[in-house]
Amino acid sequence: NEIKPMFERDIAPYLNRLQPEGIYSKMIKICSIGESKVETMIADLMDTQTNPTIAPYAKTGEVHLRVTAKAADEEAANALIAPVMEELFHRFGDKIYTTEENISLEEAIVRILEEKKLSVTTAESCTGGLLAGRILNVAGASNVYKEGYITYSNDAKERLLKVKRETLMQYGAVSPQTACEMVRGVAEATGADVALSVTGIAGPGGGTKEKPVGLVYVGCYVKGHVRVEEFYFTGNRDKNREYAVARALTLLREELLKYHA
Length: 261
Known about the structure:
The protein is of the alpha+beta class. It has helices at 3-18, 35-41, 43-47, 74-92, 105-115, 130-136, 154-161, 165-171, 176-190, 237-258, and strands at 22-31, 53-59, 62-71, 96-98, 120-124, 149-150, 194-200, 215-222, 225-232.
């Protein structure tokens, strides 16, 4: 609080006298592709960059690219940035979920749900409500999200989501079969058009050789179509849960883009 007015009053004007050109930037946010692949896909651009420049930032389940130009004014900077942005859109296509600095992945997803007039629900085990929390952080999420379930125990999965006892006995709570039945069950129980389920082993205990800590299954239901994905995470308990939520949101966005009423 003390440094901000000091910077604005004294330091910024001093720096502007030393460097009269302004620095302007645009943001591109990408999901569904990992950091290493993104960097490989833009390596040629970064090797030859001068003005503007591209700076990658790795986030949990996302990669952000900041394109920055130095120019006399914003109009001149935008003229430099525009062809780079166009090339990035050509390379990453619909993996780009926004170019707005303040828009999060969950906000972009809520926008899609609203545009397609779809409702969404969640059934969570190892994430314990974190997924629902991410969605409900978005202002206006109540337009698309009405209710969800945290079904940590097998009994809750059976009782609330109608997961078959035979499925739990034969395949276990952490399995693609259970994730599939969870996501179908929560869609039916809530009447939602779209649903997500998460079941896994967050750690630090509970893992086995066959099902190690960090194994997570995410199910996605969109109007009767179900897709289940398997993930292996290598962080601590908190990170594994955080990664699971990020992957669930990414999977949801991928399936929503495929859906046409």
